[in-house]
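Reopening closed ticket. The problem is back. First fold of the pair:
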Amino acid sequence: MGDTGFYLVILLFVIAAFALAIWRQRAIAKMSPDERAAMHAKVDDARSKLKWGPRNPQLICPHCQTCGQVRSQDLRVKRGVSGGKATAAVLTGGVSLLATGLSRKEATTQAHCDHCCSDWQF
């Protein structure tokens, strides 16, 4: 009996998802071309903000020299081999590698220009 309730909830969820998708498509079809373009631009901007971070008005793109179109965010990137971790691996017979790995992480900033679509780190 418990499995039947679970499958019923899943079925209702799937039906609701399909109904929502149909409703959204109908709402988009009723929009004018200008409204549709504005909606797509807004969605694209939100996706870019999630992927590359917010626009930084002070940064200038080194490739196209455009100001105000550069997005940036802080990252921690794996770089090279950490000397301390390599020493610990030798002393522990390699057991510490399972928990920490050998590479070290460095703080860096990732940037993306919306104008020329170039990416770089500094």
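Second fold of the pair, where the issue appears:
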Amino acid sequence: MADAYEIPLSAQPQQFSIALAGVTYRVTVQWRDPSPGWCIDIADAAGNPLVMGIPLVTGANLLEQYAYLGIRGGLYVQTDNDPDALPTFGNLGASSHLYFVPSS
């Protein structure tokens, strides 16, 4: 992924602000049960929800179906040594990574 940069995560629920393509967003990352997996919520800088519960899955731009939000880029998940492996509870941020790729 040329121009991609990694959004630093750790294997624990977290909330942080981040600038993506020059716009500040509030991001929440949570492990969700009963169908286990990491999910991401994105809000504007004031905390107003934009999109909630996006599963961190591999092989697709997580923001593709949300183009109407105007986030100028895509989010991609990839795991070391097996790009198609889903992030597990323990490997998020260690061997499983979230990348932002700005739009051209």
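Update: turned out to be a display glitch only; the data is intact. The CA atoms of residues 4 and 101 lie 4 Å apart. The beta strands are 5-7, 14-20, 23-32, 37-44, 49-55, 73-79, 96-102. Please close again.
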